[in-house]
Design goal:
Length: about 475
């Protein structure tokens, strides 16, 4: 700014100097005229005064003219640079002429060069962003899932063609969501997500997605919401709508098949069991006679094996029906407050016969006698029975099965079942909760079981909104840990 300062300073200095000099000259001449002798007539004196006045006026006019010319020159120089800058800004981001015109003012020239360089860089960045935007739009448009993006003001900023037209009106970009969303359940869901202060706070550091199951007429959808944050504030809500009608239909067909097959199998299995038990009772009576005569009928052992496999098939059928109903959520889910000390006494009575076969002991350890939680009593009973039976099955005779219940944190109750079995390898600790998965097939056949117990445990845990896992026990064996919301 120094050159501009000096230019303006010198302009004012010259104008003031000329103006001051003219005034001094004018008054000096007037003084000389007044002090000089007057041999001339009065007319000559008046003529001299007029001449001096004209000369002073001319000097003043010259000073003003020079100041005007200098001011016009300076304003034209500054104005041309400002006009070029203004044109370049107005043309952005369209391609425009480079600011190469010199103004003879170094500061303004440097500002023009810097702005031109910045705009070129911004134009390159905007071109890259535009390409990324087109790529993202192509990817989102090619998805089979419907995509709906709503900003924090509730305006739809993007939707793809895969979004079902019975959920959201097509071509609704720029409209408010409540004017475009047609399904009441989806409308309420989006409204709650926009108004939820927890999602606004939590998404600033770690965006939290939300999942919602939606049924609209004969269609079934799975809705997932991902908040997109910027500077600890949610700016966009990305909503993915997955059409699961076909998957739901297939699942229902599979469940219907399992239920029908289970019911159809129950009839012949019950008949076989009845015939086998009838024959077994008859052989029991004949066994006493054979002891006296010293003979032995091998058919008795065959019947025992038949009855044992019939019982196993019945247990498997019951487990198949149970897990089918749990997965379809058709099982009546009725949670209530449970006092765990009294509840676990009933569980101990139910598993007493199972543990007695191997002379095992059950140790129930509650962190506090007044522990309580909200859960479905029947489902929780199935969960505990499966875990304790599984621990008993893989623990050696005369061992101890330990059940610990404690508060894990302010939100969850932890149920831990510890056995003294061979343990589970690290790479199989997730797979053991799959249907019919067995760590050791030969050992599992000898010990019985349907292969569905842990799958049922996982489904019951999910119904309660919890998680289940397994880890190694310090003294050998495994610890199954279930976290259930209080």
């Amino acid at each position: 700014m120094r050159s501009i300062f000096f230019r303006l300073f010198f302009v004012h200095l010259i104008v003031i100097a000329i103006f001051t000099g003219g005034l001094l000259l004018f008054f000096n001449l007037m003084h000389i005229i007044e002090d000089a002798p007057r041999p001339c007539p009065r007319r000559s004196s008046m003529r001299s005064i007029s001449s001096f006045l004209v000369l002073g006026a001319l000097l003043l006019m010259g000073a003003l003219s020079l100041a005007l010319i200098l001011s016009l020159s300076a304003s034209r120089t500054l104005g041309s640079g400002r006009t070029e800058l203004h044109k370049r800004v107005e043309l952005f981001p369209r391609p425009g002429p480079s600011l190469v015109r010199r103004t003879q003012i170094p500061e303004l020239d440097r500002l023009s060069d810097g702005l031109d360089t910045l705009m070129r860089k911004m134009q390159t960045d905007l071109s890259g962003l535009e390409l990324e935007k087109e790529l993202l739009a192509s990817l989102l448009g090619a998805l089979r899932e419907g995509v709906l993006c709503v900003n924090k003001s509730g305006v739809i900023v993007y939707q793809n063609k895969a979004l079902h037209p019975e959920l959201v009106t097509p071509k609704s970009i720029g409209r408010l969501y409540f004017k475009a969303v047609l399904d009441s359940g989806l409308l309420e869901y989006i409204h709650n997500r926009l108004q939820d202060p927890n999602s606004l706070r939590s998404a600033g550091k770690r965006p939290m997605k939300s999942v919602f199951e939606l049924q609209h007429g004969p269609y079934f959808f799975r809705v997932q919401e991902y908040p997109v944050s910027n500077d600890d504030e949610v700016e966009l809500h990305l909503i993915l709508v997955q059409d699961r009608t076909q998957e739901n239909t297939t699942r229902r067909m599979r469940e219907d098949f399992l239920q029908n097959a289970s019911h159809e199998l129950k009839t012949p299995i019950t008949s076989i069991r009845g015939y086998a038990e009838t024959l077994m009772s008859k052989m029991e009576r004949e066994a006493a006679k054979q002891v006296e005569t010293g003979t032995r009928d091998p058919g008795r052992s065959f019947l025992k094996g038949m009855l044992r496999n019939v019982e196993r098939m019945e247990a498997m059928i019951e487990d198949m029906v149970r897990i089918s109903t749990l997965e379809s959520r058709s099982f009546p889910f009725k949670p209530r407050r449970i006092e765990l000390e009294r509840y676990m006494q009933g569980i101990e009575t139910l598993v007493e016969g199972t543990l007695k076969q191997k002379e095992q002991r059950l140790a129930i350890k509650l962190a506090s006698p007044d522990l309580s939680m909200e859960a479905d009593p029947l489902l929780l009973e199935h969960l505990l029975l499966n875990l304790i039976t599984n621990a008993s099955r893989y623990s050696p005779p005369e061992s101890e099965v330990v059940v610990r219940i404690r508060r894990e944190n302010a939100q969850n109750m932890a149920v831990l079942v510890e056995d003294q079995g061979p343990g589970i390898p690290m790479d199989l600790r997730e797979k053991i909760f799959e249907r019919f998965f067995r760590v050791d097939h030969d050992r599992s056949r000898e010990q019985g079981g349907t292969g569905l117990g842990l799958s049922i445990v996982r489904q019951i845990t999910r119904l309660h909104g919890g998680v289940v896992g397994v880890e190694a026990a310090p003294r050998g064996g495994s610890i199954f840990k279930v976290l259930l919301p209080l």
